[in-house]
Design brief:
With 291 residues, this protein is an alpha/beta fold. 30% of the residues lie in helices and 14% in strands. Helix 1 packs across helix 7.
Length: 291
């Protein structure tokens, strides 16, 4: 277990299992179209759910998550581009954040938090306190998108990218991200386990390696490294602003969001990954809100 305070870990696991009725299959469809997005209405999340596009003004000022709608320029095994882990990764994490902290989250309906889908060129981007993307080893950014991402981060936004594996995926992501945040100004670092982000609520002892539930089932739970020896070590990396605060974090060689998205599908998968995944997720969100 990553949680050094074992009673808290047990309480977290019990609370999550007891509320298993929140599993993704029980949620209804959501999402709102608007001008400028009409051509995108055929888009679907990883499990076939319609996307939720933000209105020009968010419905409230409560905490919410926004997913980047990006263009994939290469393929990754088992990847789904921007759709990966959307929208249930975000929704389940927001739900647990509301249960385990006093944070007010923004709700689409009872028990269903908003999970907005935005392009980096949309004005609504700047209403997003927290931005997420998965499978970013396939991403391609135009210069306009890169400039907007830099503007977003420099204005106080926070980015977490997750679920990309191996050397080629890292090379693609770091190259494209470097268009927005040049490494000469914003070097990417491996964040030490002593950093405050690992201690905001739960005590994280190591970066969890979470595999997708599909890989976990295919290997009978025997392996968590989706690219074998190449991805054996999970990394938690990031960049900092001029004051030393993390403004973007990157979980490489791990699929933390699957521990949220798939929490209700298999008890063994849940117990192996979800308590650690939620501990890290909530720590990151609290850091993003307070730094």
């Amino acid at each position: 277990m990553l949680l050094s305070y074992r009673p808290v870990a047990i309480a977290l696991a019990v609370a999550l299992v007891a509320s298993g009725g929140y599993a993704y299959a029980q949620f209804g469809p959501g999402g709102f179209g608007r001008g400028g997005f009409d051509q995108l209405q055929g888009l679907r999340g990883e499990q076939g759910d319609p996307p939720e596009f933000p209105p020009e003004a968010f419905p409230d000022a409560n905490f919410t998550a926004c997913r980047i709608l990006y263009t994939s320029v290469r393929r990754e095994a088992n990847g789904a581009g921007w759709r990966t882990d959307y929208p249930w990764g975000e929704r389940h994490l927001m739900l647990r954040l509301s249960e385990l902290t006093r944070t007010r989250v923004s709700w689409q309906a009872p028990t269903i938090p908003h999970a907005w889908l935005v392009r980096l060129t949309d004005e609504e981007l700047f209403n997003c306190p927290y931005l997420v993307a998965s499978d970013v080893g396939t991403i391609g950014l135009s210069m306009e998108e890169a400039e907007r991402l830099r503007e977003y981060l420099e204005k106080g936004g926070f980015l977490w990218v997750d679920d990309f594996w191996g050397d080629a995926a890292w090379s693609q992501w770091s190259q494209e991200f470097g268009k927005a945040m040049p490494p000469s100004e914003f070097p990417i670092e491996d964040v030490p386990i002593t950093d405050p982000i690992f201690h905001t609520m739960f005590e994280i002892k190591k970066v969890p390696q979470v595999t997708s539930i599909r890989f976990w089932r295919a290997t009978g739970g025997r392996s968590t490294s989706e690219r074998g020896a190449e991805s054996a070590v999970p990394h938690f990396r990031g960049i900092r602003d001029k004051k030393g605060r993390l403004i973007a974090v990157m979980t490489h060689n791990t699929d933390v969001a699957d521990s949220w998205e798939r929490e209700g599908e298999d008890p063994e998968f849940f117990y192996q990954f979800s308590p650690d995944g939620y501990a890290l997720g909530i720590n990151v969100l609290l850091y993003a809100m307070t730094h």
